[in-house]
Specification:
Helices cover about 0% and strands about 55% of the residues. With about 120 residues, the chain is mainly beta.
Length: about 120
């Protein structure tokens, strides 16, 4: 059974930083593309960043590029999202997604709240 757990969310003031973690059991993360998504109140879920399984290449949405960094620690089977220079518009529930070919796995999400 695959279990995906996000953690590290919280409340910070604008300009602050948080590091989110996506830990998994029952699946080896370094085999798959891992993405971070977010969903703000009243809005749809949007992709924020992802990291490839092959060469570790990364992709960022234009709204977070230069402020967020996605990385993986294969020894810990964990993917991170370092978020710097946070803005109130970054407030959302952040989700980790594992794209395992025929299957897609999501965590339960972690809340990030940025106050001005």
């Amino acid at each position: 059974q695959v279990l995906v757990v996000e953690s590290g969310g919280g409340s910070v003031q604008a300009g602050g930083s948080l590091r989110l973690s996506c830990a998994a059991s029952g699946i080896t993360l370094d085999y798959y593309v891992i993405g971070w998504y977010r969903q703000a109140p009243g809005k749809g879920r949007e992709g924020v960043a992802c990291i490839s399984s092959s060469d570790g290449s990364t992709y960022y949405s234009s709204s977070v590029k230069g402020r967020f960094t996605i990385s993986r620690d294969n020894a810990k089977n964990t993917v991170y999202l370092q978020m710097n220079s946070l803005k109130p518009e970054d407030t959302a529930v952040y989700y980790c997604r594992i794209d395992a070919g025929l299957y897609t796995y999501w965590g339960q999400g972690t809340q990030v709240t940025v106050s001005s």
